[in-house]
Amino acid sequence: MMKLMTRYSLCVSLLIFIPTLTHSANSSTNYLTTQQLWFSQTLDHYSPYSQDRSQFQQRYYEFLDFFRSPDGPIFMVICGEYTCKGIKNDYIAVLAKKFGAAVVSLEHRYYGKSSPFKQLTTQNLRYLSSKQALFDLAVFRQSYQAKCTSSQISESLNAKLNRTKEENPWFVFGVSYPGALSAWFRLKFPHLTCGSLASSAVVLAVYNFTEFDQQVGESAGPECKAALQETTKLIDQKLVTNGKALKASFDATDLRIDGDFLYFLADAAATAVIDMISAVSFLQFQYGNPDKVCKPLVEAKKAGDDLVDAYAKYVKEYYLGDYGASVQSYNQNYLKNTTASEDSSDRLWWFQVCTEVAYFQVAPSNDSVRSSKVDTRQSPFLHCTIWTSAKMYLEKASFLMLIQLIYTMEAPKLLVRNFPCLNVSFGSKIVFTNGSQDPWRHASKQASSPDMPSYTITCSNCGHGTDMRGCPQSPFNIEGNEKNCTSPDAVHKVRQKIVEHIDLWLSECQDTSRSCI
Ligand SMILES: *[C@@H]1O[C@H](CO)[C@@H](O)[C@H](O)[C@H]1NC(C)=O
Ligand SMILES: *[C@@H]1O[C@H](CO)[C@@H](O)[C@H](O)[C@H]1NC(C)=O
Ligand SMILES: *[C@@H]1O[C@H](CO)[C@@H](O)[C@H](O)[C@H]1NC(C)=O
Ligand SMILES: *[C@@H]1O[C@H](CO)[C@@H](O)[C@H](O)[C@H]1NC(C)=O
Ligand SMILES: *[C@@H]1O[C@H](CO)[C@@H](O)[C@H](O)[C@H]1NC(C)=O
Ligand SMILES: *[C@@H]1O[C@H](CO)[C@@H](O)[C@H](O)[C@H]1NC(C)=O
Ligand SMILES: *[C@@H]1O[C@H](CO)[C@@H](O)[C@H](O)[C@H]1NC(C)=O
Ligand SMILES: *[C@@H]1O[C@H](CO)[C@@H](O)[C@H](O)[C@H]1NC(C)=O
């Protein structure tokens, strides 16, 4: 699967999550805090008193420098399918300052240092799901706000402030998969947050996610798209005639399974396109090498040079080099490694992909950029056979579609009755945002509605999570500086809207939340 989006920023979610990065972030400026705190979490929220050991240690962070004590809001920033190293110094810092908010952030269960098990066998992964993760956030939120210090948390906010009754208004934030969690959290626990920001939130668990590749082509533009497609064709041919040499030229001999290799190449192009988009500012500010993949490919094509060679050079120098992607993470055998470590994110995320969210970035039937061999029967699908037989997995497809229904934002309002304290309509006060060039935006909420407004930030380097992180996203921009976006105004306008919604929803929340909890 194409990872969602981390680079430099391990804390940027997803969907390009790169487990091994060659660039180390400057932690003193890229994070508001990296000081880890621990929370004793329920292992199975659906059966809290099971035979199993019932608790595990979950890591969290807290940043109080901007907090307007004692009744300022609390911003909960959701971490996702990656090691959560701290609270990023992105646009959340600007918002926290503006609203006098405390910022807290909980690492997602199983990832980073928050694994309940040392061995990540399939059996031990049974408590890994977005549903459990949502309850983690709810339990954490309640304990952090606890009326008195509980055994679960080293120090609740109220204990710190020496008070017994107060409830602060909460607001939840997330980008990418955490963006989806942010929306789902508000849906499931509307009494626990005044509202949510769901940035580039992949709330639609699309099974055959062909729109992803289509968006890559669109974002690349016609000339580059044609060059990429020609390269793909040549690679497909070479793979048949001399696969070994071809893989060697990409430093990817380890990927014995052709499907793995093709998926790796597809990701390399997609990432490039996302980054190629940022190249405009790179060039403008002479920051780096513009048009990282398009320029060499288009030039090679014009000069009649070997496109596969040009592409291999890009993949090795940029995708594996500067960007820090690892060939191993595409290797099914590597994904079978059950030892928990900070490198386990790939195995863990694939488990979630295979069991709940899918988003298989398969080739569309016509005009694809990636190889048409990247289909549900090939690499993404095969990865899932790590967990179950191929036959069983195909049967599961219908299960995935059911999940998709449940998770679709327009889903029936089922859960409401579980929360007697609830006095807001189901699915409200969630603001959705998308970047216009982001292939993931097709898995986001598709339409704006009065209770759940949505905005697309349109500019030529506006990608995944641009509202929170600015653009380009590498190198990391402190406070998500919008100045580096090709249309700072587009980003600015959407940010204004976000601020207005937070302001309004916090004010509407203050009175009711206290009596409720
Ligand atoms: C990180 O940033 C701080 C503050 O700007 C600076 O003093 C420090 O040298 C930087 N560290 C590295 C490793 O770049
Ligand atoms: C907390 O407040 C109580 C009651 O006002 C007071 O007796 C106590 O000393 C305070 N404790 C701390 C640690 O400030
Ligand atoms: C996905 O596409 C494949 C063909 O490429 C098709 O066989 C399958 O039914 C589709 N699955 C879903 C859930 O749409
Ligand atoms: C599995 O991962 C662990 C932790 O990263 C590593 O030490 C070990 O060598 C790996 N095992 C294999 C067979 O690759
Ligand atoms: C396939 O894509 C090409 C290029 O975008 C387009 O011209 C053609 O009409 C498409 N064919 C079908 C059957 O959709
Ligand atoms: C919800 O709150 C509003 C405003 O406080 C109130 O008018 C309404 O009766 C409440 N609804 C329920 C079902 O309690
Ligand atoms: C996200 O992008 C999709 C696809 O372009 C679009 O239909 C949808 O309205 C966008 N959603 C938001 C919240 O911008
Ligand atoms: C962002 O813009 C500033 C000038 O406003 C420039 O100094 C900086 O290098 C740019 N950063 C990136 C990553 O392009």
From TrEMBL:
SUPFAM superfamilies: alpha/beta-Hydrolases. Keywords: Glycoprotein, Hydrolase, Protease, Signal. GO terms for molecular function: dipeptidyl-peptidase activity; serine-type exopeptidase activity. Residues 1-24 form the signal peptide. It comes from the Eukaryota. GO terms for cellular component: vacuole. GO terms for biological process: proteolysis. Gene3D superfamilies: alpha/beta hydrolase. The keyword Hydrolase applies. PANTHER family: PROTEASE S28 PRO-X CARBOXYPEPTIDASE-RELATED, THYMUS-SPECIFIC SERINE PROTEASE. Belongs to the peptidase S28 family. This is Serine protease.
